[in-house]
């Protein structure tokens, strides 16, 4: 008998994750491509969960800095991995939200019964970045290629100017504003009165928490060494507020500038992957879920003409996500707020505490309120690990799932929850709720 | 008692080639009773990256299956350039290679590499010898490679040579990965693997040695094949056997066809334009 009526929605489980240690750009992974890193990360996940030769429902991943030759990056990585070659794959790209958006897509397909198990991930290299020819050279070469006769072809080539030979190197700049992400963030930091001291404190805490998590073996089943690197090499375990206070500012102008290389994320190389599945698939494979993927919300802000800060979209996504799930901002055991810059996290927290912002921008009668800062980024975040753009989502999902699993074991009587917030270029923000 | 020659660093292969080119085979009937050893070898990540890129392996912590051959090759050259080695260094042909991986090796492992020659034997077209490379990490031999070289000479029709398995299983396999090996392939791979044998470098150098063009390194074409197959192989307990047939003249376009069986893959690397069999590969586990 055909069963074409909608199936009931199921829970999607997070079974675990794997990533390679993140490495500062132009260092340990300088020779590795996005495909190398993603394939190695998938193979690490395959080894950890016994998936060799296993056909997955799908693998979804992406990269932000991407060569045109990598049009099918994720599928190529699957074919180079130990997964069954009959595993379909596709690429997504939503700037720094890529990894989390990939996890949302896989979780949704599992929830709808369209796939039983899938892998979500992301990879990025700032070292092996694509370099394109200049727009002038590109137009000239295309014109020469279109020309039918030799004289026409020479004529087309003759229009080339010396300046056209300078290659175009990707830049961390918003196309519509010409400002770098750091410059955008500096504007927002100033608007919200985020101080230098607060930012340096958050940065120092990120390093301290990450170092402690490594020391207690938290990452033993989340990270696989790669090319001789065993820990995120941006980590400075002995980083202090005093040392961070000595750094000169790099974004913002004048005496009010607060953002330094120490409280901003460095360019980093790395990759991550998360294994998601239905409850049935997990049971069949004798794998126990760490946490469940509950819900997600993505928002975007109109930052182009300065109506809102570039990285403030999560401030809008989170209240919508909370309302839909009948939760308050205080109903969480852990908060994973991506530290694009220390100021990003602090500005978001201030926005949620601010009655005027809540009323005028969010249309809420009361602000979401403040959070218990002891629950924020408890095993460190991007300031310490580094931030290979598309790899950050997978890092956070796997980390939070394991944190929730640990908490649940200590406190089995109640539901434990975690909130993820990731800001992204283009004025976007991707947020999600996990629970165990 | 086997003499052990311990090298502190990699030998200078260009010098070995330069002197070997002047040396004629001494016609000895035995093999030098010698083991050439390097201890605590660490893989150069830069060289590994270049090898991985050239052969299209994924650059990862795990060494590609053929890679330890590159660590043993310079030691093979030291054995083969000994005055009492019965074959000429230039002109000996790599005809067969068997690699057995009993434990996966990683970039982080300090490796002991040891090479000796054994099993000097007659071949219908001359004589053959095996150069055995053993790579160990800790106390355990993790990787063993047997490279068989042929020196053409007095014919021995009665001698028995190792033949590749029958290719019947490949009859129904119509296509597979196809690669263009450009004119510079030999120089490119020599720069990575250190095998500067003149037959691979340039037609001008290959011609006096009887080749109309430069030819691709067997270890390069073999590595390309393994790279295309490795995702479907287990990480250890694998034997990778290659029989090299007609050399690949550069430039050339070649195709790999593979039949997948239970615990076995049988592959043929063949020319696309001319009907030439370049190599037969059998992987078992």
From TrEMBL, chain A:
<keyword id="KW-0808">Transferase</keyword>
<dbReference type="Pfam" id="PF00108">
    <property type="entry name" value="Thiolase_N"/>
</dbReference>
<dbReference type="InterPro" id="IPR020617">
    <property type="entry name" value="Thiolase_C"/>
</dbReference>
<dbReference type="InterPro" id="IPR050521">
    <property type="entry name" value="3-ketoacyl-CoA_Thiolase"/>
</dbReference>
<protein>
    <submittedName>
        <fullName>Acetyl-CoA acetyltransferase</fullName>
        <ecNumber>2.3.1.9</ecNumber>
    </submittedName>
</protein>
<feature type="active site" description="Acyl-thioester intermediate">
    <location>
        <position position="96"/>
    </location>
</feature>
<feature type="domain" description="Thiolase C-terminal">
    <location>
        <begin position="289"/>
        <end position="435"/>
    </location>
</feature>
<comment type="similarity">
    <text>Belongs to the thiolase-like superfamily. Thiolase family.</text>
</comment>
<dbReference type="GO" id="GO:0005829">
    <property type="term" value="C:cytosol"/>
</dbReference>
<dbReference type="InterPro" id="IPR020616">
    <property type="entry name" value="Thiolase_N"/>
</dbReference>
<keyword id="KW-0012">Acyltransferase</keyword>
<dbReference type="GO" id="GO:0003985">
    <property type="term" value="F:acetyl-CoA C-acetyltransferase activity"/>
</dbReference>
<dbReference type="InterPro" id="IPR002155">
    <property type="entry name" value="Thiolase"/>
</dbReference>
<feature type="active site" description="Proton acceptor">
    <location>
        <position position="387"/>
    </location>
</feature>
<dbReference type="InterPro" id="IPR016039">
    <property type="entry name" value="Thiolase-like"/>
</dbReference>
<feature type="active site" description="Proton acceptor">
    <location>
        <position position="423"/>
    </location>
</feature>
<dbReference type="Pfam" id="PF02803">
    <property type="entry name" value="Thiolase_C"/>
</dbReference>
<feature type="domain" description="Thiolase N-terminal">
    <location>
        <begin position="13"/>
        <end position="280"/>
    </location>
</feature>
TrEMBL record, chain B:
<protein>
    <submittedName>
        <fullName>Dehydratase</fullName>
    </submittedName>
</protein>
<feature type="domain" description="MaoC-like">
    <location>
        <begin position="183"/>
        <end position="261"/>
    </location>
</feature>
<dbReference type="Pfam" id="PF01575">
    <property type="entry name" value="MaoC_dehydratas"/>
</dbReference>
<dbReference type="InterPro" id="IPR002539">
    <property type="entry name" value="MaoC-like_dom"/>
</dbReference>
<dbReference type="InterPro" id="IPR029069">
    <property type="entry name" value="HotDog_dom_sf"/>
</dbReference>
<comment type="similarity">
    <text>Belongs to the enoyl-CoA hydratase/isomerase family.</text>
</comment>
